[in-house]
């Protein structure tokens, strides 16, 4: 059951949201950890913007601002703080649930599995037979590219990394692939990452 963090200073609205979420299979919680956060902006003490900023330093869970504030500047500020969506009150329950489901579905796509090998893009870890290893950003993107296509040319991997703002050249790719191969070997996934001469790499 997905946990939804609800931060709302209007007790009536908070109770409405809690009831709505529970009726649709979610667990409403008042503090992290959570799978998605619903944040009001106008809060006593710290604003929702500040809470979002702090949450972003420790988590990449989807964040939806649910607020009565209507200015475009506030909306831009919310997205600048790392929000994934911005919904104005009074909200439509059906629309809110649809957006929650969309964001949770998108986040669930951060886990890739092939032949028992599991890559978690969110926390940059790879696991195999209950063994787990941490990966660098480059190693994570390289493995994600290979798990998506199984056979990738060197140029495709470099292009994928470039699109994700991770500059890498062919020599650096070679070094990263070898490090990734060693980590997979230590997990017991020896032979998973193979070199295809003159082409690139495959799983």
Main sheet record: 5 strands, parallel
Instruction: Using the alpha-carbon principal axes, give the shape.
Output: elongated
Q: What is CATH's topology name of the largest domain?
A: Rossmann fold
How many helical stretches? 7
| Radius of gyration, in angstroms, nearest whole number | 21 Å
The total of beta strands comes to 12
Mean pLDDT: 86
Q: What number of domains?
A: 2
Q: How many angstroms does the end-to-end distance come to?
A: 33 Å
Low-confidence stretches: none
Order of helix and strand elements from N to C terminus: EHEEHEHEHEEEEHEHHEE
Strand content: 15-25%
Fraction of helical residues = 40-55%
**Corresponding CATH superfamily of the largest domain:** Response regulator
What's the CATH class of the largest domain, please? Alpha Beta
| Strand neighbour order, sheet with most strands | 2-1-3-4-5
**Which architecture of the largest domain per CATH?**
3-Layer(aba) Sandwich
Structural class: alpha/beta
Indicate the topology.
Layout: E1 3-7, H1 11-23, E2 27-29, E3 36-39, H2 48-56, E4 63-67, H3 72-80, E5 85-88, H4 93-108, E6 111-114, E7 117-120, E8 125-128, E9 131-134, H5 137-149, E10 151-153, H6 154-163, H7 170-187, E11 194-196, E12 200-202
Parallel strand pairs: 1-2, 1-3, 3-4, 4-5
Antiparallel strand pairs: 6-7, 7-8, 8-9, 10-12, 11-12
Helix pairs in contact: 5-6, 5-7
């Amino acid at each position: 059951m997905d946990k939804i963090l609800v931060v709302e200073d209007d007790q009536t609205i908070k109770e409405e949201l809690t009831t709505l979420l529970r009726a649709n299979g979610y667990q409403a919680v008042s503090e992290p950890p959570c799978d998605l956060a619903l944040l009001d902006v106008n809060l006593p003490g710290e604003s929702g913007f500040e809470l979002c900023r702090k949450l972003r330093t420790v988590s990449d869970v989807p964040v939806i601002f649910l607020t009565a504030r209507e200015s475009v500047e506030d909306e831009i500020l919310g997205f600048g703080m790392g929000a994934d969506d911005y919904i104005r009150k009074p909200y439509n329950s059906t629309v809110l649930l649809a957006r929650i489901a969309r964001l949770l579905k998108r986040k669930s796509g951060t886990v890739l599995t092939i032949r028992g090998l599991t890559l978690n893009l969110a926390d940059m870890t790879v696991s195999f037979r209950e063994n787990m290893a941490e990966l660098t950003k480059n190693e994570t993107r390289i493995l994600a590219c290979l798990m998506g296509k199984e056979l990738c040319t060197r140029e495709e991997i470099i292009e994928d990394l470039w699109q994700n703002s991770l500059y890498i050249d062919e020599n650096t790719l070679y070094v990263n692939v070898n490090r990734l191969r060693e980590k997979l070997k230590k997990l017991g996934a020896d032979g998973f990452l193979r070199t295809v001469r003159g082409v690139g790499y495959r799983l």
